[in-house]
Amino acid sequence: MLKLPKTIKMVITDFDGIMTDNSVYITDDGKSSRKINYKDVTGYFLLKRKGIDISIISGEKNGAIEMLKDLFELEEVHQRIWVKIDVLKEILKRHNLSQEEYVYIGDDINDMECLEYAKYKITVPNATDKVKNIDGIQMTEFCGGEGAFREVADCLTE
Fold this sequence. Notes:
single chain; alpha/beta; two-stranded antiparallel ribbon; 16% strand
């Protein structure tokens, strides 16, 4: 069971491995796609309805992120970012957020600096071992792409 304070104003999340199961489907013509779980999409709705902002910092660029950006009018969407810590700090500064006011969700090595920096940090059971071993990290019950993001949203909105 996740424990997050009511002071959270923003959820800052990775995309692949959190909103997806980390799979990429590649068609014969070389195009790629990802599957996202509608429970997780509903998590975006629940957070926005509660007044909690959502930011995405992703190492990849894809259409699913663009869809969520447009659907939920997300202000902070950063794609093709490998070194994420600088972007995280810029978001915190722009929105004047303290360590008590955001949670970071990530699952792989390019999220480690952000997870180590954040006071409230969450990962998924199918994360890399290095991430799962970060001091103070909480883990969702559900894997990435199977309702993990919704689990965080439910924790903050119930």
